[in-house]
Amino acid sequence: MATIEGKEGTGSLRTGQTIRRNYLHDTAATRLREMIRSGAFKPGDRINEGDLAVSFGISRTPMREAIKMLAAEDLLEILPNYGPRVRLIDRAELVEMLEIIAILEATAGERACALVNDADIEELQRLHDAMLDAWKAGDKAGYFDRNRQIHDAIVRLSGNTTLQRIYHSLSGRIQVARYSSNKTDEQWKRAVGEHEAMLRFLRERDAASLFSVMRDHVRSQENVIALAYGVEADAARRA
């Protein structure tokens, strides 16, 4: 139901007033989307509409609409005689997605060089230091969160809302595997070195160098992410 709010109270719509809509299926879709992106549901996992509706405290109708929304976003797939499940990603599609994400992040970094201020860079440095502390402490969840925040922040600092929307749509589908996959010591050192280079090039406003390092940083994750999804996909097929 729409509610009309403004300084003069509820009533006829006047200049400066806003219309706020709060639909159950939108709220349910937001919660389910975050569960998928956080890894609570993994590729191939079946989504039980009835159980989720009970868990969310809503009827099955808005839950069904939420599932349709996420299917349209390619986070879920609805199979005949089976129902919805978290969409699987094959190697070819993963390579295509990473190539686009790499260019989007690199372009965001390039644009951010012209827009970023010292306070923005210091915030990124704080996140970077917190990411290192979490890794050293064995706090994988903390490491995952700080790593993601750094990439999201650079994309946001691009100032390009269309780029941000496309980026989050694609990145959200592989978010867990991308940031939380196990890394060898060599891969870890390389990733840290690339993050430090990203910060250095931002400080120097070196757009060309930042574009290159961010593009290569994303591309280098292909094998690690593919391994994570390969294991999950195999497990799903055996279930």
TrEMBL record:
Family annotation (PROSITE patterns): HTH_GNTR (PS50949)
One Gene Ontology term of the molecular function aspect: DNA-binding transcription factor activity
CDD domains: WHTH_GntR
Listed Pfam families: FCD, GntR
Annotated SUPFAM superfamilies: GntR ligand-binding domain-like, Winged helix' DNA-binding domain
UniProt entry tagged with the keyword RNA-binding: no
Taxonomy, superkingdom: Bacteria
Domain HTH gntR-type: 22-89
Cross-referenced Gene3D superfamilies: GntR ligand-binding domain-like (1.20.120.530), Winged helix-like DNA-binding domain superfamily/Winged helix DNA-binding domain (1.10.10.10)
Keyword annotations from UniProtKB, A to Z: DNA-binding, Transcription, Transcription regulation
PANTHER family the UniProt entry points to: TRANSCRIPTIONAL REGULATOR, GNTR FAMILY, TRANSCRIPTIONAL REGULATORY PROTEIN
Protein name: GntR family transcriptional regulator
